[in-house]
Amino acid sequence: MTSDSSSENRDFVKVRNLTKSFGDLLVLDDVSFDVRKGEFLCIVGPTGCGKTTFLNCLTKLYSISSGEITIDGEPIDLKKQNIAYIFQENSTMPWLTVEENIRFGLDIKKVPKDIAEQRVNQMLDLVNLRNFASYYPKQLSMSMLQKVGIARAFATQPSLLLMDEPYSQLDLNLRCRLEDELIALWKREKTTVIFITHNIEEAVYLGERILVLTNKPTKIKREIMNHLERPRKISDPEFVELRNEVTSLIKWW
Amino acid sequence: MKKLTLEVRQNFIVIEYAIIAILGFLGIWHIAVTFTSIGKLVPGPLQVLAYFFQSFVVPIGKNTIQEHALISLERVLIGYSVGVVLGIASGIGMAGSKLFEAIFKPLFEIIRPIPTIAWIPLAILWFGIGEMPKYFIIFYGAYANVTLNTYAAAKSVNPTLLGAARMLGMKEKDLLLHIVLPSSIPQIFAGMQSGLSASWMGVIAAEMVKSNNGIGWVIIMGQESANTVQILAGMVAIAVMGFLMASGMRILEGRLCSWNQKKI
Amino acid sequence: MESKENIAIRCENISKEFSAKGRKIRVIDSLTLNIYDNEFVVLYGPGQCGKTTIINILSGLEPPTTGEVFQKSEKVTGPGPQRAVVYQSISLFPWLTVMGNVEFGLKAAGVETAKRRQRAQELIDLVGLHGFERAFPNSLSGGMQQRVGIARAYCIAPSILFMDEPFGALDAQTRYMMEQEIIRINSKEKRTILFVTNNIEEAIYLADRIIVLNNCPTSIKKEYKVDWEKPRDYTDKKFLELREEITSIVDETL
Q: If contacts are CB pairs under 8 Å, which of residues 5-64 in chain B contact chain A?
């Protein structure tokens, strides 16, 4: 993934002076950062650092107290812009098959049937769920359900993909496989991804850049570039060094 | 402390809207009665409220309206308490004893669809004229609801809790009282709330059929003397009593079940 | 030294079958385990391969289909305070305070109030919850609730402690903290512990011995002895090497 350093791509997503309070409780304190188009950004912070609040501000669930968030120059707008999210809790629709779930977003956007079908098939192959296309969610394991959610999100070619600890409920070994799949998808689709997690190893495994948050009132503590080549190895001394660096910035236990 | 102000502020907004809604309703009622033909059938709110407040001093029959209300309430409290206690015992009993369950569950299933009020004629035949049939109806309304809720809760106790209690050394015979019962309290309480509604509805109905005091009697007297204002005043009394009881139950719930709500 | 005398709990050729929809499903197949006194043994295996069933059988909550379990020289026939369990899911009694939960076992055993309060208080302090005695579980975080569960289990002075993925519902960092806490608590009050997890980092961090399990039907795949000092470093070279080795031999099902 070559980095395009032309200015129009550098600040595709702009977060400026994002501040959020609940009454007198200051949760987010003047948070500012940019995300390059097509970048895979990981945000990691200590337990209780207001990441849910941050996400909810991004998805407009909460109103911002002050500051602004723009995508490609326009203020963030869920109706106009194509923003997808994947959360920890699975949100596949139990009354639709795997195939129908993946096609869901495309149908809403009224994508023509043949293009939609092609896209769904592509996604099914990329997450290795080809053989389960007509299964219902209740027949699938948790990791498969998360794959469906991810395929569904990528299917609509979102301008921004937000991911909040999608793998935290899964076994460690499954996580590695799914993370590799995610990277493969990302490279192919060139989607801009903001991945939020408490798992430091995961952040180092996935991110091109890592933002480390502080505890509440939350600010950005450090920005760390991650130039490790992919596929990354968790036992690699450079990986370990980076992981330890991030851990030392966060460690409260 | 400051966080409380936010909550209090939010509560004020809710109360504001409630007051606006009620005043709005009264306003529409008043306008409808004054300016349309509804006024021939139904008296206006001012008339009703005047009569209502007046009857705090001027008795209807032998008692003032607050005395009637207290008479009804007293009947409810007696029948209701007995119903709740026996209901909890029955529910726990059915859940704990397979024999008990086998005998009584089918009976309950058959009787369940029969509304409390349908028992009034039978109660009068059985218990005669007087207080007993009223107490029976009130009792039954509470008993049926509480038993069913208690039974359902007791049957669906989290098995992990039972396993943990056994693991910690609790004897089988103690599980029913010390694990099943406390973990069922929130649902029992729900049964107590619906039981209270049923008892209250039961007493009004019973008083309408055969009584010489109580709110139900006030209403039926209003009908017999074609005094619509009295009927509506009686209904206002029911609404006020209902509101007070519901608030009371909510406070009780806060005390009894505070461990149930997720606080984090 | 390992000999028959200091086996805390053992089972021989345990198997467990469930009948579902007319078919018999074998969940555990021919399991033989010896757990020695004061050992910290970790049962590691991916997914839902029957690890909880093993705990249920060893602690006496469920009977095996074949085979027997012996604690010291006595056959295990039911649950009891000698075989304490810390569960993953909600297992605290929500209508009791922290103190009420922790002293529960001693109360059920008829220990007098002053004595049991004192012991319960010791453990509440040990798990770092001093000051929370009168709190109800619904006002505690996940990590704190698990600490209460641990204190409650220790309180009945069991000779073996089973922990069934106790930190599975916690986020990655709280999990690291609790792993540290378990090491600390165990160093103060040493017990025989059988700990179940599907998290390889957790397994290597905690274990004196790791028993790697196969998928359904569950049986032992391989055992590893880990006699390094504690507390350990997750990014230590030999830690990562062992992690890689175990990860590569484990069955994975999607």
A: 5-6
Residue-wise pLDDT tens digits, A128-147: 899 999 999 988 888 889 99
Residues on chain B touching A23 (C-beta within 8 angstroms)? 2-3, 5-6
Model pLDDT, residue B84: 96
DSSP H helical ranges for chain B: 2-35, 45-54, 65-96, 98-111, 120-127, 132-155, 159-167, 172-175, 181-209, 215-224, 228-256
Global pTM reads: 0.84
Provide the β-strand partners of residue A44.
A197, A212
- Domain count along chain B: 2
Nearest-angstrom CA–CA distance, A235 and A242: 11
Instruction: Inspect the interface and report whether the beta carbons of C138 and B259 lie closer than 8 Å.
Output: yes
Indicate whether B68 and B16 sit together in one domain: no
C-beta separation of C218 from C14 below 8 A: no
- Contact indicator for B87, B146 with CB cutoff of 8 Å: yes
Report chain A residues touching chain B, CB-CB < 8 A: 22-25
- B16 and B123 co-located in one domain: no
Question: Could you tell me the two tokens for B182?
Answer: 């406390």
Pairwise CA distance, residues B138 & C225, whole Å: 70
Cα–Cα distance measured from residue A105 to residue A93, given in angstroms and rounded to the nearest whole number: 12
DSSP per-residue string spanning A56-67 = HHHTTSS--SEE
User: B38 and B110, same structural domain?
Assistant: no
